[in-house]
Design brief:
By secondary structure, the protein is of the alpha+beta class. It has helices at 24-32, 56-66, 69-82, and strands spanning 3-10, 16-21, 45-53. It has one domain (3-82): GIY-YIG endonuclease (3-Layer(aba) Sandwich).
């Protein structure tokens, strides 16, 4: 089974959340049902971006990168191609 690295946007505050999961649909449901402590108060969420990896190690490395300064820059540029990002 593949691992997904994903980016969610909070429809409440507009902020992004970056995570990793083996079962992407289930994990997004957990976020939206308030079962994830770190995102409970920021729901609901919409999925903006995903990448798939064969191993957990690869996915964890990519998640860590996307949470870094250069990773945020990459996401801002990538998401601007698809979704207008508003400052707030």
């Amino acid at each position: 089974m593949k691992y997904s690295v994903y980016v969610l946007r909070s429809l409440k505050d507009g902020n992004l959340y970056i995570g990793m999961s083996k079962d992407l649909n289930h994990r997004i449901d957990q976020h939206n049902l308030g079962k994830v402590i770190s995102t409970k108060r920021r729901r609901p969420f919409t999925l903006l971006y995903t990448e798939e990896y064969e191993s957990r190690i690869e996915a964890a490395k990519r998640e860590k990168y996307l949470k870094s300064g250069p990773g945020h820059k990459f996401l801002k540029e990538k998401l601007a191609e698809v979704v207008p990002i508003t400052s707030g």
